[in-house]
């Protein structure tokens, strides 16, 4: 009974309201976590697509700062995917002994795998699991799909951190290349793109 109480699953749900063009705390850290936690990958992909369109809309209107902020939100979402899911574990399962710099951040067989999940937030027990005196014991008894066991936010949290940060870095480059292609397709002028990149003084 105690284990059932301690490990009740607390899953976040994204808002049904369109996020594109909005600003505020719901579209920053809290919004990012709510999108990806609880295995809401489809919602996460839709969020990224909407925010990419928002970047194009902002730039087309000459709104540089909002476009930059939105790009940061997308990067955060993409990068967090690798540090709060079991993508790395599944990739290593398919590529045993591979080095961190060899990881493919967009392996279709993993992205579409029914085994893929994001770390589940088990509420208060997740916070307690971070306390120094209890963390080791609790970590060993946390469910395999818990946030605690799938947290790769820093080197001390998980030995797989190098793989997570390598995948996140590569995914950031892929995202930027995707945006460059969309800039070309939408015929955005180079001076505007330079402002977006901070190469010229923003207005």
Written as H for each helix and E for each strand, in order along the chain, the element string is HHHHHHHHHH
Provide a count of the helices. 10
The share of residues in helices is 55-70%
* Mean of residue pLDDT values: 74
Q: In total, how many domains does the architecture comprise?
A: 1
Q: In angstroms, what is the radius of gyration?
A: 19 Å
What class do helices, strands and sheet pairing give?
A: mainly alpha
How would you describe the shape?
elongated
Any low-confidence stretches, pLDDT <50, length ≥5?
1-39
Proportion of strand residues? under 5%
Largest sheet: none
Q: For the terminal residues, how far apart are their CA atoms?
A: 60 Å
* SS elements, strand count: 0
Structural commentary:
The structure is a single chain. The protein is mainly α and 203 residues long. It has one domain. The protein is 55% helix and 0% strand.
In a few lines, what is going on in this structure?
The chain is mainly α. 55% of the residues lie in helices and 0% in strands.
Key traits:
203 residues; mainly alpha; disordered N terminus
Topology (elements, then pairings):
Layout: H1 2-6, H2 29-36, H3 41-60, H4 64-83, H5 87-94, H6 108-111, H7 124-128, H8 132-141, H9 161-185, H10 190-196
């Amino acid at each position: 009974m105690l284990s059932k109480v301690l490990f009740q699953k607390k899953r976040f749900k994204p808002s049904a309201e369109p996020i594109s063009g909005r600003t505020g705390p719901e579209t920053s850290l809290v919004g990012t976590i709510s999108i990806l936690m609880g295995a809401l990958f489809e919602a996460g992909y839709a969020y990224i697509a909407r925010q990419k369109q928002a970047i194009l809309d902002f730039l087309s209107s000459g709104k540089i700062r909002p476009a930059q902020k939105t790009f940061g939100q997308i990067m955060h979402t993409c990068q967090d995917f690798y540090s709060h899911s079991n993508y790395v574990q599944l990739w290593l399962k398919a590529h045993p002994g591979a080095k961190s710099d060899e990881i493919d951040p967009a392996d279709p067989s993993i992205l579409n795998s029914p085994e893929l999940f994001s770390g589940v937030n088990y509420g208060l027990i997740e916070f307690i699991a971070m306390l120094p005196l209890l963390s080791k014991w609790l970590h060993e008894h946390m469910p395999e799909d818990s946030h605690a066991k799938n947290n790769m936010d820093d080197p001390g949290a998980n030995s797989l951190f190098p793989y997570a940060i390598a995948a996140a870095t590569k995914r950031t480059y892929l995202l930027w290349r995707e945006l460059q292609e969309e800039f070309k397709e939408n015929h955005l002028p180079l001076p505007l793109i330079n402002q977006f990149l901070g190469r010229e003084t923003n207005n």
